[in-house]
Amino acid sequence: GGVPHYVAGLAEGLAERGWRVTVCAPSHTPVLDRLAAVAWRLISLDTSGGPSPRSDVRFCRMLTSFCKDENVDVIHAHSSKAGAMAAVVGRLTDIPSVYSPHTWSFQRILSPTAERAYVTIERILARAHAEVIAVAVAEQREAELHRIGSPQRLQVINTGLRDRPRPERAAARMLLDLPPESFVIAWIGRVVAQKSPEHLPRLARALNGEATVLALGEGLPQSTPGRELVAAGGAALESVDPEIVYAAADAFVLTSGWESAPLVVLEAMRAGLPVVAY
Q1: Based on C-alpha coordinates, what's the Rg of the chain?
Q2: What angle separates helix 53-69 from helix 80-93, to the nearest 10 degrees?
Q3: Is pLDDT of 5 > 80?
């Protein structure tokens, strides 16, 4: 997912500027090596995405003690669950907290009742933080539409990417066993409902051989959408550097049902690809 890579990039940038950064993250985070290279401390925080009262209270107590003992200056939370925990710790320690939702929790496909409940939660969270950071104007507009906090507390800081050397197109296609003359459409994402990978085989069948759908995601080849994509003439990959996929492609497609400003779109733009997004 994009949030771990966003946090890793932020930690790297802050460390370069002389900040002493501690990162609390799941022990299985895919960017552990990047964080270990720049973080002063790494704290494992393995909790569920939803409410988990017993472990949440335990982690909040641990983080409260840590922030007091280490004279922490600011807490930055990423995603709604972390935002809730940071709000509690910030109040208990009187340390200002910043919150980046990376897509509001109410933007998912929900029942009207659940959507109203999540809007209320986000309003409470926004008031508890010193600042809320939206990664795109669209995310800011959603907050204004649902009256999430005051405009003075809601700032847009567009996501940035570092330059990366790009593989040569011919070499990338050779690595992926793609014909040099075919038109290739790339997709990169997680195999979860938000990303709608089940649309990929439908897309491949609709194109009927006019283009190749090349998809990359952890566990994708073993998943039902991945197997159906291969049967429809596409390719399902994992454990491949995304830059190779971008270099081999002619266009990029994003099938997500909801997003804020996904890294894959920015990466595709950096690679010079036109993007088709829902």
Answers
A1: 20
A2: 50
A3: yes
Q: Residues 200-232, buried b or exposed e (16+ Cβ, 10 A)?
A: bbbbbbebeeebbbbbbbeebbebebbebbbeb
List CB contacts of 260: < 8 A, sequence separation 6 or more: 101, 102, 103, 104, 107, 134, 135, 136, 138, 139
DSSP letter at 129 equals S
pLDDT at 28 over 80: yes
- Look-up of token digits 């809320």: 132
Query: Contact, 158 vs 261, CB < 8 A?
Result: yes
> In which element (H, E) is residue 270 found?
helix 263-270
Can you read off the two tokens belonging to residue 205?
């069948």
Mean pLDDT along residues 194-214? 95
Q: What share of the chain is helix, strand, coil (3-state, %, to 5)?
A: 45, 15, 40
- Which amino acid, 35? L
Could you tell me the two tokens for 237? Answer: 């990959």
Q: What are phi and psi of 235, to 5 degrees?
A: -135, 135
Tokens (6 digits) for 89? 């710790």
Of 239, 242, 213, nearest to 226 by C-alpha is 213
Query: How far is the C-alpha of 24 from the C-alpha of 21, rounded, in Å?
Result: 10
pTM of the model: 0.86
- Is the predicted pLDDT of residue 176 greater than 90, yes or no? yes
Please provide the distance, in angstroms rounded to a whole number, between the alpha carbons at the two ends of the chain: 18
Residue 109 in tokens:
């496909």
**pLDDT value for 181:** 87
Strand partners, 156: 134
- Contacting residues for 94 by C-beta, under 8 A, at least 6 apart: none
Report the C-alpha gap between 136 and 92 in whole angstroms. 30
- Is residue 93 within 8 Å of 67, Cβ to Cβ? yes
